[in-house]
């Protein structure tokens, strides 16, 4: 998370006063929960829910399609594919900041691993129901 924020510092600016809040990500198809602290540039893994200010729950495919701009976060929420609890303003601030950052997941993963992941993303994307690769 720190590396992504270093490349996209506007995410924290866009979150304003909500960046110091903790947001729990709960995907039932992942083996752990993820607690985000944007202001600290930290994401920690947990087996049980730690104290948090807000939570987002849903399948990994819903999160990925929202992050990659393939599906609207509001539509995912109103369809029930994503559930939000706690400080909804913090969740909205995070979603809006990520939308504005226009993250390319393939580029972000490639930067983190220093590997050219576009071929892998093209191969795995359809299995996840996504096109994780954006052509330039």
Report what the structure shows.
The protein has 136 residues and is of the alpha+beta class. It has two domains: 2-103, Nonspecific Lipid-transfer Protein, Chain A; 104-136, no CATH class. Helix content is 41%, strand content 18%. The protein contains seven helices and five strands, in the order ααββββααβααα. It has helices at 2-7, 10-15, 60-67, 73-78, 88-101, 105-113, 118-124; strands at residues 23-26, 33-37, 42-46, 54-58, 82-86. The chain has a five-stranded mixed beta sheet. β1 (23-26) and β2 form a beta hairpin. The radius of gyration is 14 Å and the shape is globular. The two termini are 24 Å apart. The relative contact order is 0.17. Mean pLDDT is 82; it is low at 131-136.
Task: Summarize this structure as a short list of keywords or feature phrases.
136 residues, alpha+beta, Nonspecific Lipid-transfer Protein, Chain A, 5-stranded mixed β-sheet, 7 helices
Question: What's this entry about, in short?
Answer:
This protein is α+β, with helices and mostly antiparallel strands and 136 residues long.
Helical content class: 40-55%
Structural class by sheet pairing and helices:
alpha+beta
Distance between the termini: 24 Å
Mean pLDDT: 82
Radius of gyration: 14 Å
Q: Which regions contain 5 or more consecutive residues with pLDDT less than 50? A: 131-136
- Number of strand segments: 5
Strands of the widest sheet, in order across it, are: 3-2-1-4-5
CATH architecture heading of the largest domain: 2-Layer Sandwich
CATH class bucket of the largest domain: Alpha Beta
Order of helices and strands: HHEEEEHHEHHH
Largest sheet: 5 strands, mixed
Strand content is 15-25%
* CATH fold field value of the largest domain: Nonspecific Lipid-transfer Protein, Chain A
Instruction: Give the overall shape, derived from the CA principal axes.
Output: globular
SS element count, helices: 7
Instruction: Provide the CATH superfamily of the largest domain.
Output: SCP2 sterol-binding domain
């Amino acid at each position: 998370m720190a590396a992504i924020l270093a490349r996209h510092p506007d995410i924290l600016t866009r979150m304003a006063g909500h960046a110091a809040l903790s947001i729990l990500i709960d995907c039932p198809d992942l083996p752990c929960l993820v607690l985000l602290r944007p202001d600290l540039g930290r994401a920690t893994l947990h087996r049980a829910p730690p104290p948090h200010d807000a939570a987002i729950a849903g399948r990994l495919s819903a999160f990925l399609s929202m992050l990659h701009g393939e599906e609207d976060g509001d539509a995912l929420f109103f369809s029930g594919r994503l559930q939000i609890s706690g400080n909804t303003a913090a969740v909205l601030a995070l979603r809006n900041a990520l939308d504005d950052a226009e993250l390319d997941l393939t580029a972000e993963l490639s930067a983190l691993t220093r590997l050219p992941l576009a071929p892998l993303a093209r191969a795995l994307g359809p299995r996840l129901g996504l096109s994780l690769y954006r052509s330039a």
